Amino acid sequence: MDKKVESYDVVVIGGGAAALTAAIYCGRARLNTLVIEKSLVGGLATYTNEIENYPGFPEGTTGLGLMDNFHKQAKKFGVKFKLTDVKSVDLEGEIKKVETFRNIFEAKVVIVASGGKPRLTGAKNEELFLYDKGISFCATCDAASNTDKTVLVVGSGDAAIEEGMFLTKFAKKVIVSVMHDTGKMDCNEIAKNEALQNSKMDFKWNTVVDSFEGDERLTRVNLRNVKTNEIIPIDVDSCFLFIGYIPNTEIFKGILDMNKNGYMLTNEKMETNIEGVFAAGDVRDKFLKQVATAVGDGAIAGYAAEKYLAESETFHTQIMSKDLPGVVYIWNAVDEKCRELLPIIDSFEAKYKDKVKVTKVDIYKSTGLANRLGVTTFPALVATRDGKISKIIKEIDNEQDVEAAFI
């Protein structure tokens, strides 16, 4: 089957808070932008019944309501949406390709905001109670709604124990299912000791989840003792799973740099190891995974994408233009020597205005154009002819040095 090819400035993979924010920034910059989401626009946040820590909502808001507003805002700026699964990507070269079952989407920029998914227990009936029906994955999000209630925490790593202790500020009782022997946990020693001394926490050692029970909402979790196979029924109002998180990065393995757990590695500009490819949100290796931090990532990625495309336009239409030989002065506005050379560059430009095209590139905010030209020290001059680099001069003291780049 021949796949339909569509072209965009930016393709965003994922539809959560980071993806939608990046799309909003790109759409507002009048970039032709497509968001590809395989299931539900809004991501995991849509399953959170109440969000009380997102700024600007003193009375709180629902995850679905908040993400719906993000979605509407993106569409307001002309962002297009496709509900489908990405099968493969080709991210090398100036034009990237994102392939789905029916289409190949070409783009100058790809933003990976595919998020992740909490690791599940695999116990019976688990799928019936996920997210807003009793099984949660975020104590920060859902602690207040469990005030004076009984909750079960599954796991014993740092996240499980620290989030469990946080829940004790609200819940009447926090029961913790630990698969290890009495007193043994996977968390750090400080958290372990504090948890063992917390009067609201009750530990069920050598247990794993056997099944989840309830009608419309979770009311009981049956634990199984891994040594005796005894079933231990626990009546609960909610259950929090903290047994790990799985980033949605499978199709990017071997292409984009990741850590050992599969989270993408970026710099502060959300840039990956491939030019024109950015990553944002929970898919990144980061300290905190929340809607607020996803929005921050998305804003940076969207802004960086717009700057990357602007630099690409300058690079192709001006710097690498074939109509005239070119001289590119690469400088840093905060460097004194760079500033002192500006009058010399201006004088050279006036002298040869009909014979050479002069471009000044300030790297103070971005080294993108300098990187494309292979320049890492500043000031520097790059001479071009017929759309190719012909000379790089790193020692510049006078107008003769500038002319040497042209002659």
UniProtKB/TrEMBL annotation:
<dbReference type="InterPro" id="IPR013766">
    <property type="entry name" value="Thioredoxin_domain"/>
</dbReference>
<protein>
    <submittedName>
        <fullName>Thioredoxin reductase (NADPH)</fullName>
    </submittedName>
</protein>
<keyword id="KW-0560">Oxidoreductase</keyword>
<dbReference type="InterPro" id="IPR023753">
    <property type="entry name" value="FAD/NAD-binding_dom"/>
</dbReference>
<dbReference type="InterPro" id="IPR050097">
    <property type="entry name" value="Ferredoxin-NADP_redctase_2"/>
</dbReference>
<dbReference type="InterPro" id="IPR036188">
    <property type="entry name" value="FAD/NAD-bd_sf"/>
</dbReference>
<dbReference type="InterPro" id="IPR036249">
    <property type="entry name" value="Thioredoxin-like_sf"/>
</dbReference>
<dbReference type="GO" id="GO:0016491">
    <property type="term" value="F:oxidoreductase activity"/>
</dbReference>
<feature type="domain" description="FAD/NAD(P)-binding">
    <location>
        <begin position="8"/>
        <end position="298"/>
    </location>
</feature>
<dbReference type="Pfam" id="PF00085">
    <property type="entry name" value="Thioredoxin"/>
</dbReference>
<keyword id="KW-0285">Flavoprotein</keyword>
<dbReference type="Pfam" id="PF07992">
    <property type="entry name" value="Pyr_redox_2"/>
</dbReference>
<feature type="domain" description="Thioredoxin">
    <location>
        <begin position="311"/>
        <end position="401"/>
    </location>
</feature>
